[in-house]
């Protein structure tokens, strides 16, 4: 079956918010991405609403035919919005006001109680939850103890690797934790700094079922169009290595 692609369209909204305009419309980008073969759409509703707005969420809820995955922090505000929206999945992520983008995974070692609380609240609401975590063995074990069904590994270090040795080390580390998660019956997703070049390295990790990719695709789409950008990424994830 290969690795499914969920396209993160946050930066379409970022471009719009620069001018506080109506265009480009994230919903239109989502439709084009799905038509090109994406399995679904990912967005992050940040506390400061710097890109995706609540209006976007409701338009996307109506337009997206695949899986609508919304990244959100463990906050009462996000919980209230998600309970009203009813996305197909919520991915719990850490959030800092001063960061440009999400900088790391949830620290389950120090935030286990808080994350457990929100897992219970979303379970009560009947909304599936994924955790955005760093790819290390101890964090995977805690995720297993929390009973999560899906995790998304933060591939920041994987994406930052540039030398052959570092690339090999990070790919191997990702493969090892993916196997550990799979042994716990946790579905494995990946995301952050995945490019058209390093996406090909993920093909050898059979436990990875889905990749959430935004910046690389939106950047390519600005120059080549969304259809081509999505199709090329799907090929990179599943074509010839």
Can you put this structure into words, describing what you see?
It is a single chain. This protein has one domain (4-238): TIM Barrel (Alpha-Beta Barrel), CATH 3.20.20. The model has no long low-confidence stretch (mean pLDDT 95). 48% of the residues lie in helices and 17% in strands. An 8-stranded parallel barrel has the order 1-2-3-4-5-6-7-8, surrounded by 8 helices. The two termini are 16 Å apart. It is α/β, with parallel strands linked by helices and 241 residues long. It is globular, with a radius of gyration of 17 Å. It is built from 10 helices and 8 strands. It has helices at 10-19, 26-35, 54-63, 76-85, 108-125, 137-146, 156-160, 164-183, 215-224, 226-238; strands at 4-8, 40-44, 67-72, 89-92, 129-133, 150-154, 187-191, 208-213.
The backbone outline, from C-alpha atoms, is globular
Order of helices and strands: EHHEHEHEHEHEHHEEHH
Reported for the largest beta sheet, the result is: 8 strands, parallel, barrel
| Strand content range | 15-25%
Instruction: Evaluate the radius of gyration.
Output: 17 Å
- Assembly category: single chain
**CATH class placement:** Alpha Beta
What order do the helices and strands come in, and which of them pair?
Blueprint lengths: L3 E5 L1 H10 L6 H10 L4 E5 L9 H10 L3 E6 L3 H10 L3 E4 L15 H18 L3 E5 L3 H10 L3 E5 L1 H5 L3 H20 L3 E5 L16 E6 L1 H10 L1 H13 L3
Can I get a quick summary?
The protein is α/β, with parallel strands linked by helices. It is 48% helix and 17% strand.
